[in-house]
Design brief:
With about 280 residues, this protein is an alpha+beta fold. About 45% of the residues lie in helices and about 15% in strands. A four-stranded antiparallel beta sheet has the order 1-2-4-3. The termini are far apart.
Length: about 280
């Protein structure tokens, strides 16, 4: 074999080795690495999506808890009776008494509500129709009071018009009022024996504001509680152990009379008078 043939043979062997190495490297190194990289990226994306979904569920659970606090009582019959009493007291408070009629609708609207995974309605809707005669000022004050009440309710429809025919009880300046009111009973609400939720609306607003932070809102609620140690309230100290103002002043006077001017010392941190 002459030198030229030997060089060609070495070249061909090198090409075969490089081609085979590249093929095996592509098939058994690059392809598995890219496949695992894509699979890892897909799993990380799924993990992020599930984490976002869990965070969303936690936020929705907090909203559901607040909705249950604002809901009517869990017993539909009690809720209907108590809410009708609330509407009657609301209209009476704002002097809307002429021709007043509050009619609850007995139709079951739970089938029209969205359902949970167990095919249970998320809420039950109670509907009331109200008809009365009142002045515009009284109607505006009533609406403001209505939407200031911490309940899951709304005015579905509202119609205010002049009286077409004057009635015997109505006054000339009174308008005819017709409205449809809807109130909700959220599924899972406690069957409390009263209508209005027993909570401080300021604390609930603070709970809503702090729900976006990692610390639990109950820490804020506890710090604002009247019995919280942070506010200087000691549950073991009763009112009978406190000294009366007269006794305190007399004892302080006796202490001042016993102390001489040369031995009396000001509190620490106060500037002392220099002797001249």
């Amino acid at each position: 074999m002459n030198p030229r043939e030997r060089a060609l043979a070495i070249f061909l062997i090198g090409v075969i080795i490089l081609g085979g190495g590249g093929f095996f490297g592509y098939q058994f190194v690059y392809v598995p690495w890219t496949t695992r990289t894509r699979e890892l990226a897909r799993l990380q994306k799924e993990e992020q999506a599930k984490t976002d979904r869990l965070d969303e569920i936690e936020r929705e659970r907090g909203e559901l808890a607040r909705w249950r606090m604002l809901s009517l009582p869990g017993d539909p019959d009690l809720a209907r009776f108590e809410y009708e009493k609330y509407l009657d007291a609301l209209l009476t408070r704002h002097k809307i008494v002429t021709g007043r009629a509050i009619t609850p609708q007995t139709k079951d609207n739970s089938k029209a509500a969205p359902t949970t995974a167990n095919k249970e309605p998320i809420y039950t809707r109670l509907t009331f129709t109200v008809h009365a005669y009142a002045t515009m000022d009284n109607i505006v004050a009533m609406l403001k009071d209505f939407y200031s009440t911490g309940l899951m309710h709304q005015i579905k429809s509202l119609a205010i018009q002049r009286q077409l025919t004057a009635t015997r009880d109505s006054l000339p300046d009174e308008l005819e009022l017709r409205m449809t009111v809807e109130a909700l009973i959220v599924n899972g609400t406690d069957k409390r024996p009263y209508l209005l939720p027993n909570f401080d609306r300021g604390l609930m607003a603070l709970d809503l504001a702090t729900s976006f932070f990692p610390h639990p809102p109950t820490v804020v609620w506890a710090s604002l509680s009247p019995a919280s140690p942070r506010r200087g309230c000691s549950p073991t100290r009763s009112a009978t152990t406190r000294r009366s103002p007269a006794r305190t002043s007399s004892s302080a006077g006796r202490r001042r009379s016993r102390a001489s001017p040369t031995t009396a010392r000001p509190p620490s941190g106060w500037p002392r008078a220099s002797s001249t």
